[in-house]
Amino acid sequence: MTTCSVSVRRCEDYDTSKIEKILRKQLSELGINLSDFAGKRIVVKPNLVVASKPDTASCTNPAVIEAVSKIAVSSGADVTIAESPGGPFTLSLMKHNYKVNKVDEAAKNSGAVLNTDMGFQTMSAPNAKNSKNFNIINAIADADVILNVCKLKTHTLTGMTNAVKNLFGAIPGTQKVEMHARFSNQQKFGDVLIDLCDMLCSSKRVISFCDAVIGMEGNGPSGGTPRKVGCLLVSENPYALDLAASQIICHDGEVPMIEEAKRRGLCPKEGEIRILGDDINSFRVKDYLHSDAKRGKIFSLLPPFLQPKPDVILSKCVGCGKCAENCPANAISVNDGKAVIDRKGCIKCFCCQELCPIHAVDIKKNIIFKLIR
Predict the structure, then answer these.
(1) Do 319 and 190 reside in the same domain of the chain?
(2) Do 179 and 230 share a structural domain?
(3) Of the residues 234, 256, 283, which one is the last residue of a structural domain?
(4) The domain spanning residue 322 has which CATH number?
(5) Residues 359/223, Cβ–Cβ less than 8 Å
(6) 246 and 349 in one domain?
(7) Angle at CA 276, nearest 5°, toward 275 and 279?
(8) Which residue, 220, 250, 283, sits at the end of a domain?
(9) Which segment of 176-185, 194-203, 220-229, 287-296 scores lowest on mean pLDDT?
(10) If we measure between CA atoms, which residue out of 346, 344, 296 comes closest to residue 323?
């Protein structure tokens, strides 16, 4: 990594012009020269995990996407906004996602273009521990620079989703399901996310921007609750940015991806981060809720029947089948218009909870697990 500096600046609302001004100041204090981007192919990679209105806080706010895109366009770069959320990676679904998340407006206002290339290519990851190659969507594989515009959220599988996890959106569509099946527990999945992030950071310039104006707590990344944090974070080190973000939501030491990155020497230790801008302690949210599937050391010691598991809310389920389509273990079927989870086949990846469009999948906790948490 090129730096262990993270800029943290106060931002109280989603006023695009204010956000752009703050981000320019952050880039400057990090020593990032925008003239370096002239003539480059830049991809702005937001978190658009579901087609959801901005006020749900499920995705990167369009005001932040627009501000980052404006900065990139003004530098003389060729700028594309690209993402591959869960589910099939098709142009019709992406156009719907862009529209609902108001990213089409962000592109129009900034001068960036929306990605319409649904192709992908294989990139080699020779230094990876778990996967030596990854299929990456063309818009990201062909870019010179990735502006990784993430959203600060809790996550039922990984604990937190932010800069590192956001790059999982480089994997095309339903191929993410295959990745979940191959790396079917929290530790293995977190390890392969580090492999992916390291490969992209080694082959391209990656600058991460975190939308923490309003984050998501509880059962994120899509079924949680919006929570005001009031800041923006920027860094050229996605691991350092995630470490700073975990400190802000008081989940330090509890995100396996960060701990693995430390072991690999990719992430600095707590005392080694240089925080620029505002006092990071002024943003700490001491009661920021974990997901109901929070995994502590005790989790691995529990028998499967005591562990948190996804649970269909039958009164809300409409039988659309999205959960079944995206289940890595093929453990979900739709019977009589309702989703049914095969408990023996479930690998507890919580993809069904993440991708249900109407939030009809909850996290069920055993009463004993509640007591020992």
Answers:
(1) no
(2) yes
(3) 283
(4) 3.30.70.20
(5) yes
(6) no
(7) 75
(8) 283
(9) 287-296
(10) 346
Q: Tell me, yes or no, whether 290 lies in a domain.
A: no
Confidence (pLDDT) at 292: 87
Q: Are strands 78-81 and 41-46 parallel, antiparallel or unpaired?
A: parallel
292: amino acid identity, one letter: D
| 304 and 275 share one domain | no
pLDDT digits (tens, 9 = 90+) for 157-203: 999 999 999 999 999 999 999 999 999 888 899 999 999 999 999 99
Separation between Cα atoms, residue 342 and residue 231, nearest integer Å = 42
3-state secondary structure 145-214: EEEEEEEEEEECCCEEECHHHHHHHHCCCCHHHHHHHHCCCHHHHHHHHHHHHHHHHHHCEEEEEEEEEE
For residue 193, the domain's CATH number is 3.40.50.11440
Amino acid at 254: E
Q: Which structural domain range is residue 50 located in?
A: 5-283
pLDDT at 367 over 70: no
Q: Rounded to an integer, what distance in angstroms lies between the CA atom of residue 356 and that of residue 338?
A: 13
Assess contact for 215 and 287: CB atoms under 8 A: no
pLDDT tens, position by position, 190-202? 999 999 999 999 9
Same domain, 134 and 84: yes
Tell me if 25 is assigned to some domain: yes
pLDDT single digits (tens) 118-170: 999 999 999 999 999 999 999 999 999 999 999 999 999 999 999 999 999 99
Provide the CB-side half-sphere exposure for 117 (13 A, CA). Answer: 17
**Mean pLDDT across the stretch 7-28?**
98
Q: Which two tokens stand for residue 137?
A: 């969507």
